[in-house]
Amino acid sequence: MVNHRYLGNSGLKVSEITYGNWVTHGSQVDDSAAIATVHAAQDAGITTFDTADTYANTAAEAVLGKAIAGQRRASLEIFTKVYFPTGPGGPNDTGLSRKHIFESIDGSLSRLGTDYVDLYQAHRFDYETPLEETMQAFADVVRAGKALYIGVSEWTAEQLRAGHALATDLGFQLISNQPQYSMLWRVIEGKVVPTSEELGISQIVWSPMAQGVLSGKYLPGQPVPEGSRATDEKSGANFIKGFLRDEVLEAVQRLKPVADAAGLTMPQLAIAWVLQNPNVAAALVGASRPEQLADTVKASGVTLDADTLAAIDQALSGVVFDDPSHTDGVSPKTRLV
């Protein structure tokens, strides 16, 4: 079964392996398969589910709502997000304005079939809306009982500090950040993690397998596998391109004996690695078939010894992305419409 960890400086516990439905629900797989996968996740001990209004232009939230319909709400932790365009893409259908946040939370709750979400997250930083307006809107969402806690995604250390200060002044908790993090993508370690540790903010990390590259299925000098994420232009293809260089793929193949020595599969090694970071509360995983989760959840509770961690670093030497400045450019400087 999956272990649980506290999320930030709060009393909320989440499953350290959290199910995310970014590129699957409402897009890659039909609803019946998606619902079956959610139920398989629950059977494996996952209680925490992460989605966003923008995923499949609101369809992913609706599928998750169907999957959890009729279940005991208090036994689940449901997360969603706001920022990216939804609906027809009008001038106020995006961003973190008070108008968009209030309309978005009501839409998300309706699609999810719940009165509240456990965590409501700013999907990116909005440079065009005063931060005071955004955080006041989140405070009011919390006071209305529509969200229990507030989090963010891909904010810089400076943005986290400013947001946390306003949240404290307004009387609510900013408890999480959702960045990309994996053996190959370590850009949060230099600034974001130390700041988060100071402020009592946890990381909920996405792409712990580097868009599937750390599974080892992408081979140097070979075409990408048919039907893989690298071939899906509607979802992950754009994100995976930076990892598909031969020198990266060759380094990943050097992880196979490390995983074997640890008694783990490659995906298990990748997920266990991010969970070794004490500032990481949860690793987000997705699945298009229920059986994929049976392997993934075995990474929960795994402790990697110092020799294994050193072997991982040696195998990936020279191909790791660790420049903290990469975080600065994640949030668009202007809203997407």
Description of the structure:
The protein has 337 residues and is α/β, with parallel strands linked by helices. The chain has one domain (4-329): TIM Barrel. It is built from 12 helices and 10 strands. The chain has helices at 31-43, 59-68, 98-112, 131-143, 157-170, 192-199, 237-240, 246-253, 256-262, 266-275, 290-296, 306-315, and strands at residues 4-6, 13-15, 17-20, 48-50, 77-82, 117-122, 147-152, 174-177, 202-205, 280-285. The strands form 2 sheets. An 8-stranded parallel beta barrel has the order 3-4-5-6-7-8-9-10, surrounded by 5 helices. Helix 2 (59-68) links the parallel strand 4 and strand 5 (77-82). Helix 1 (31-43) crosses helix 2 (59-68). The protein is globular.
Task: Find the CATH topology.
Answer: TIM Barrel
**How many beta strands in the DSSP annotation?**
10
Number of helices: 12
Named at the architecture level, the CATH assignment is Alpha-Beta Barrel
- CATH class reads Alpha Beta
Output the helix-strand order.
Answer: EEEHEHEHEHEHEHEHHHHEHH
The proportion of residues in beta strands is: 5-15%
CATH superfamily: NADP-dependent oxidoreductase domain
pLDDT < 50 runs, ≥5 residues: none
* Residue share in helix: 25-40%
Strand order of the largest sheet: 3-4-5-6-7-8-9-10
Spatial separation of the terminal alpha carbons: 42 Å
What shape does the CA trace take?
globular
Overall domain count: 1
Query: Would you tell me the structural class of the helices and strands?
Result: alpha/beta
Instruction: Calculate the mean pLDDT score and round it.
Output: 93
Radius of gyration: 19 Å
Sheet having the most strands: 8 strands, parallel, barrel
